Amino acid sequence: MYFSGSLLTTEEPPGREGCAVVLGQKPRSAAQQRHSVTATVSKMAGADGDDSLYPIAVLIDELRNEDVQLRLNSIKKLSTIALALGVERTRTELLPFLTDTIYDEDEVLLALAEQLGNFTMLVGGPEYVHCLLPPLESLATVEETVVRDKAVESLRKISQEHSPVDLEVHFEPLVKRLASGDWFTSRTSACGLFSVCYPRVSSTVKAEIRQHFRTLCSDDTPMVRRAAASKLGEFAKVLEPEYVKSDIISLFTALASDEQDSVRLLAVEACVSIATLLPQEDLETLVMPTLRQAAEDKSWRVRYMVADKFSELQKAVGSEITKNDLVPAFQNLLKDCEAEVRAAAANKVKEFCENLPEDNREQIIMTHILPCVKELVSDTNQHVKSALASVIMGLSTILGKDNTIEHLLPLFLAQLKDECPEVRLNIISNLDCVNEVIGIRQLSQSLLPAIVELAEDAKWRVRLAIIEYMPLLAGQLGVEFFDEKLNTLCMAWLIDHVYAIREAATCNLMKLVEKFGAEWAQNTIVPKVLGMANDPNYLHRMTTLFCINALSEACGQEITTKQMLPVVLKMSNDQVANVRFNVAKSLQKIGPVLDSNALQTEVKPVLEKLATDSDMDVKYFAQEAISVLALA
Amino acid sequence: VSGVCFSADIISTVEFNYSGELLATGDKGGRVVIFQHEQEVGFSKNRPHLRGEYNVYSTFQSHEPEFDYLKSLEIEEKINKIRWLPQQNAAHFLLSTNDKTIKLWKISERDKRAEGYNLKDEDGRVRDPFRITSLRVPVLMPMDLMVEASPRRIFANAHTYHINSISVNSDHETYLSADDLRINLWHLEITDRSFNIVDIKPANMEELTEVITAAECHPHQCNVFVYSSSKGTIRLCDMREAALCDRHSKFFEEPEDPSSRSFFSEIISSISDVKFSHSGRYMMTRDYLSVKVWDLNMENRPVETYQVHEYLRSKLCSLYENDCIFDKFECCWNGSDSAIMTGSYNNFFRMFDRNTRRDITLEASRESSKPRATLKPRKVSTGGKRKKDEISVDSLDFNKKILHTAWHPKDNVIAVAATNNLYIFQDKIN
């Protein structure tokens, strides 16, 4: 592919294809790469080497092609170039060139940053890995976050390949340079590198690294403080326990009370990892004051973050603190004045309750959490209600049968009647949890009207969502209930005026047949589907064909041959060309299910006739079917 | 005071970057021109950094005229606003916007060029592929400095009405954009979604009584922003309180003087620009006839009011007829917040010293702005008798308006846009 573009003017050189194969391989490992190039090199040594160099020459030239796609392609094959150049020239020529090539498009730089992370063997192994630092250092200062992050990721990777000496001589100075760079882009990149070199350097250097990290935590630009805050937890993990207490806690406290809420909210994340590092007895004095403060922060974004990380926090601080502190905090978050916060907290209701200490879990839920949950059921904001609806059913397994019937059931029923379709859908989609505890019969009286209403909703996306839950519902409710109440709905969707609904309805029928079996299909849905073949609307006639496509396999040879095939064959005379070519497609589809006798005597003549149809598309699909079914 | 002038299409916005080293202008033709401050070598030591001239650094087409086929609306290419981003690496970044679409531009320098191809000779001739016996890795060679402007992101499809303001937040990762009825909050790295934080559109458009005229983020507090309205009021919102800022936390309004009420009261009280002081303690608003400075801690009246061209009060009727009354004058602070500047008609612009309460009227014109020339104060006569050097109100040219001005963030260098001319004046004011 890369031979197009700049090369169009040159004559095709001999041997091009052979080499293209070598280059076309996507090298997976260094070993494989070596193998493929050995092939190239040996060939080179054998006859004349010129033609083997040619593709590499193209790749090198295309590093500077005007077309981004070609440059990207070359960069992605950088390992091939490096292999051809050998380790020496890669170090002295290729890498210096790449170090200054940071003007390119983001996607090229991103690919370059990624490649360099796997380049150790190509520059001569761990001994020379530090040669990769200059290009990655310049990539770590570009403005594009994705590129910077990738460069940092690669730096972290190759840091492991540095010997302890090299790490101090080459890698650590780079981290320092980045950390004290003029622009915040370099300082943000530095934040991600401290934790990988810290464990492997001497104690003097360690002290310097801690000092650099401290400085960045109080940097002037919020960008750097955010980067430091997001790496605080990771850095804390590699620090010696005494420094966690002496250094990290003060940094954590400072970041958690930063003037910018965008920094404070990141400290909440760090809180989780710091809490896991500290012994239980220190948590109360060192972490909890900050966490309490965050849960009551003036900024809703910080409170949102607390709500969003609540399960992690709960696990990190342990059951005693959870009981005393987190339960009231969680109550407050569920009652927060900002809907975003309530929604985030509502999402965590089930997980929070699950992780409560078992000895008084039920009591805490019943007296503290459930009252708040009850209020949320009639919240003014639909996102809050729908967040709650997506988890509330999970409470029934925790609370058991009696509590579910007495306390939760009224809430489920209220939500099933909610004005917002998303709330009702979320309840319906989680029916399985409640089915296990109390059986679905308790709900079925309210369920049906809710389903019917959603099935007829004016918004097709809502109808689509409920169709997707039909197989699940059918499984929960059983075949009798389904036949009685829901079958008509499923058939009605087949003639919906939106194609996406008809398509989903077709797929739904297939899943139902898989669930209830071929016999059920034969009695209930096949007659109705086939009946539509005579519908005056050609779209409905086509739906019959689509249903047959979907159902033939599930229904088996008997039903397909005896009942479906005649209908399909009859439709080959339809006056609408769209129907006719769909007949051809259907025949191709159901052909494998039919026996060879039916294929030869019934299908073949019809397809042959369609192959001479006046419509081009009908001809095309008929011929395709003939060749696929090998009837020619 | 000395001046230098450049000619261009009608300038629609002027903005210095954070260091003052670069100055960007946008024009009606959708172009952005960036000027760079060039140090003059060998100048006397006691005035080290002034006197350098601003020369064109980069010019690029930011926006093109477009047509919205769904609404049968033409979208002008005119640049409504330019805002620089705080510098993050060797390159510079700015946001430019027309009525609908905001773009992020990168302006970067390049002084090296790669040389050496495998398949071509130096003169571009294709080499015989059979004769390639060794591989060449390109080498970087120094070259003449090249400045490139490249579009990095396009923030589109979020505004139904015309964008009047963009403002970069002090958190360095978000910015806001305001149109007549809504304010959106964007992340600088995300173009496919923005958050609507203010929406004053009434359910029934016939109940519409006011529109948003300008909006700006606080220079230090990332959660605070203000927006001004056509009714002459300013609302300050705190994004910490709620995700939607429909409720303001402060409301700045000066009670109207009933004695001066007229048919034009509402029109001339409409605020055309709002700017926070660099300190973040004050904000300045411009209405048709005056500039007001508000202390953020006092909502009921401004702490300072400066008349810009009070003599026009008697002319409001004719200014209404020729639509000039709807002109949107901008205003700006000097680097230390001790002086403010705003424009007027007849190529006049006004400066007010906040400490001494002195004010001055200056004229931006080709005659008065030969290099190294000094600007003379101008006066407009209001009474019947005209003194020497004074100009009668009736002879003011209302087609020559100075709407856009900018003040260097550190030095006493100002940029004044007078229709299609940009004047840069420097050195001491007043």
TrEMBL record, chain A:
GO cellular component terms given for this protein: cytosol; nucleus; protein phosphatase type 2A complex
Domain Phosphatase 2A Regulatory Subunit A helical: 132-313
Keywords: Repeat
Domain Phosphatase PP2A regulatory subunit A/Splicing factor 3B subunit 1-like HEAT repeat: 319-400
SUPFAM superfamilies recorded: ARM repeat
HEAT repeats: 55-93, 132-170, 209-247, 248-286, 287-325, 326-363, 369-407, 408-446, 447-485, 525-563, 564-602, 603-632
Pfam families: HEAT, PPP2R1A-like_HEAT, VPS15-like_hel
Xref: InterPro entries: 2AA_helical (IPR055231), ARM-like (IPR011989), ARM-type_fold (IPR016024), HEAT (IPR000357), HEAT_type_2 (IPR021133), PP2A/SF3B1-like_HEAT (IPR054573), PP2A_Regulatory_Subunit_A (IPR051023)
GO molecular function, one term: protein phosphatase regulator activity
Superkingdom as given in the UniProt entry: Eukaryota
PANTHER family documented for this protein: PROTEIN PHOSPHATASE 2 (FORMERLY 2A), REGULATORY SUBUNIT A, BETA ISOFORM-RELATED, SERINE/THREONINE-PROTEIN PHOSPHATASE PP2A 65 KDA REGULATORY SUBUNIT
Protein family according to the UniProt entry: Belongs to the phosphatase 2A regulatory subunit A family.
Protein name from the UniProt record: Protein phosphatase 2, regulatory subunit A, beta a
Organism: Oryzias melastigma
Automatic annotation (TrEMBL), chain B:
Classification via InterPro entries: PP2A_PR55, PP2A_PR55_CS, WD40/YVTN_repeat-like_dom_sf, WD40_repeat_dom_sf, WD40_rpt
UniProt KW Repeat keyword: yes
Annotated SUPFAM superfamilies: WD40 repeat-like (SSF50978)
SMART domains from the UniProt entry: WD40 (SM00320)
GO molecular function list: protein phosphatase regulator activity
GO cellular component: protein phosphatase type 2A complex
Region (Disordered): 364-387
Entry keyword set: Repeat, WD repeat
Domain of life: Eukaryota
Subunit structure: PP2A consists of a common heterodimeric core enzyme, composed of a 36 kDa catalytic subunit (subunit C) and a 65 kDa constant regulatory subunit (PR65 or subunit A), that associates with a variety of regulatory subunits.
Family from the record: Belongs to the phosphatase 2A regulatory subunit B family.
Protein name per its UniProtKB record: Serine/threonine-protein phosphatase 2A 55 kDa regulatory subunit B
Source organism (scientific name): Oryzias melastigma
